[in-house]
Amino acid sequence: MVEGDLLDLPLPNLLSAMSTEGSTVMLRVQRGGDSGAVYFHEGVLVHAETEKLAGNHAVYELLSWVDGRFRLVRDPERRPRTITQRVPEFLSATSDQPDPFGGTLRAAIAPVSGTPDERLLTELMTLLTRLEQDRVRLSDGGISGGGVAALLVTTAVVNSLVAFVTAKCGDPDVRPSRVLPRLADSQPYTQLLGEENDRISVATVAGVLKTWDSSKEDRQSLFRDLCRALLDVLAVYCATVSTFFHGSREREEWKATSDVFIDGLWTAVQQVEA
């Protein structure tokens, strides 16, 4: 573990060093009562968080902190991918515009460059960054309404990927009406899920869960089985996205990132009291 003062070693220098050295670490930053962290995996900045922000916005906020303390800790655990820019892009943006959110706005309106695979990966990472907020809400108990509300949030996450895939692919086999029957043999609880307007519907099962009058353990078990069915559907759509890539590098990065995201979402729903 390494600790220090940002006045002696500014955060831009630390980010550059972690990227250049190919580090797999967590860099935690503390400034007064505020704190945040950035996570590197083999030199790639994959995730950042502050008390109120995550992803790109969190990086820009942390880069605006010129004083404070930092601590470097080895972090072998894979983190969800919420970052859509590389370290040099963050640093060049903040050098042009000291306001951290000014850089974010410029990045949002700037034309996306790179190969088709790189543009697709950036688009997907941006989507997962948004969906990561819902995972955090589930994990931190930030959703009121118990199991029914959590089920609806999980369904919305799944439908975001469904919408992405159906917009990109005209094959009728990617529609929920075709996907759900194929999953029924391996995941019986997908038979309880519905389909409406090319989206997954949980209207019926949410009503069942809401009026469930058996034991608390049975209700919790039903909730988890339904969430597991939803995540199995999500895994199918994430696998379908993999077929959109032409090259192996971006395809493998997407697979690793989506696997971590699904695992994290499953961990989050298991913490919900149905």
Descriptive notes:
With about 270 residues, the chain is an alpha+beta fold. The chain folds into two domains: about 110 residues, no CATH class; about 150 residues, no CATH class. About 55% of the residues lie in helices and about 15% in strands. The protein contains ten helices and seven strands. It has a five-stranded antiparallel β-sheet with strand order 1-5-2-3-4, with helices on one face. A two-stranded antiparallel ribbon has the order 6-7. Strand 3 and strand 4 form a beta hairpin. Helix 9 runs antiparallel to helix 10. The two termini are about 40 Å apart.
Instruction: Categorize the overall geometry.
Output: globular
Q: What oligomeric arrangement do these chains adopt?
A: single chain
Strand order of the largest sheet: 1-5-2-3-4
Low-confidence regions: 96-112
Give the integer mean of the pLDDT values: 84
Residues in β-strands, percent: 5-15%
Question: Sheet bearing the most strands, described?
Answer: 5 strands, antiparallel
Task: Write a compact overview of the structure shown.
With 274 residues, the chain is of the alpha+beta class. It has 10 helices and 7 strands. The radius of gyration is 20 Å and the shape is globular.
Keyphrases for this structure?
274 residues; alpha+beta; 2 domains; two-stranded antiparallel ribbon; 10 helices; 7 strands
Task: Explain the layout of strands and helices.
Elements: E1 2-5, H1 11-21, E2 25-31, E3 34-41, E4 44-50, H2 56-63, E5 69-74, H3 87-96, H4 100-109, H5 116-139, H6 146-168, H7 176-183, E6 194-196, E7 199-201, H8 203-210, H9 216-242, H10 248-269
Antiparallel strand pairs: 1-5, 2-3, 2-5, 3-4, 6-7
